[in-house]
Amino acid sequence: MPLRSDWSGATCPIARSLDVVGDPWVLLVLREALQGATRFEEFRDALGVADSVLSRRLGAMVDADLLARAPYRSDQRTREGYLLTEAGGDLLPVLNALMHWGERHRPRTTGRMAVVHEGCGAETAYADSCSHCGERLTASNVSWVKPRDPGVRLPLVR
Amino acid sequence: MPLRSDWSGATCPIARSLDVVGDPWVLLVLREALQGATRFEEFRDALGVADSVLSRRLGAMVDADLLARAPYRSDQRTREGYLLTEAGGDLLPVLNALMHWGERHRPRTTGRMAVVHEGCGAETAYADSCSHCGERLTASNVSWVKPRDPGVRLPLVR
Fold it and tell me: Which residue, among B5, B8, B12, B154, would best test binding to A if mutated, counting the most A CBs under 10 Å from its CB?
């Protein structure tokens, strides 16, 4: 099996999606972006990857319309940051579903992460709607938290 | 970036899941299994991969408890098939979410696939619950169909 087949024209939409997000690093970059990371250094520090590799990765995600470049000012210089696009944010259910599966089938003995719908404050067992109130989950109404620290928004670490 | 980091002990459950399903071929094998494929030849014909590669892949998925070996009789011989485990079936929401994203952000001009909850017959916009009636989706109550051919259960092709 070749490492990366070209599935961009596949009949199956799952294969077409995997053509974009089949590399797990893409989903880990999105994980950081969904938690508010926008600057190169934030992605680098969270993911622990070399500058050149991350730069190439972010560029590919811009090309795929998962991220959009956005200039910002820092130290009196204009730098380039990365904002989630609509298509990037719409991958939230994929990440939520992976989180639920990981907690269920690859649990850790200490600690646990949960998907919390901030609209009603409940932990949701579903990936794209709140299993408590039914509202659709979006990048702006979800937190990933440790249930034992209610209300604390925690960055996920590797 | 190494191709496959070891994320099995990661704090983040998304990373732990990606340690198992980060290879897109794993999700494509699960796609076939969720549609009823159990025999080696069924996976091979659907995915178009060499015997040796598929055999290694299926073995790894058995080791990861996504599939379980199950003997069956054919041509008066006992052969080995592969059945979805509970952990394998629980990846349905990941695949549904990828299908929804692919149809929305990588649409094809002809044809479209939908996730249908057979319990109420409605197309669901959600990955793990029916957006029409609210019931939880499972491997046994979902079909992937082309909406223009209602009621026809279609195998997805690459």
Answer: B12
Cβ distance B158 to B48 under 8 Å? yes
Q: Is A72 on the interface with B (CB under 8 A)?
A: no
User: Where are the domain boundaries for CATH 1.10.10.10 in chain A?
Assistant: 13-86
Q: Does B118 touch chain A (CB under 8 A)?
A: no
Which residues 6+ apart lie within 8 Å of B139 measured at CB?
B34, B84, B89, B92
ipTM of the complex: 0.90
Give every CB contact of residue A86 below 8 A, 6+ residues apart in sequence.
Answer: none
Which of A13, A22, A108 is the closest to B99 by Cβ?
Answer: A13
pTM assigned to the model: 0.90
pLDDT of residue B4: 62
CATH code that applies to domain A13-86: 1.10.10.10
* For residue A67, pLDDT beyond 70: yes
Residues of chain B with CATH 1.10.10.10: 13-87
- CATH of range B13-87; options 1.20.1090.10, 3.90.470.10, 1.20.120.790, 1.10.10.10: 1.10.10.10
Taking CB atoms and an 8 Å cutoff, what residues of chain A touch B31? 12, 14
Contact B137, B96 (CB under 8 A): yes
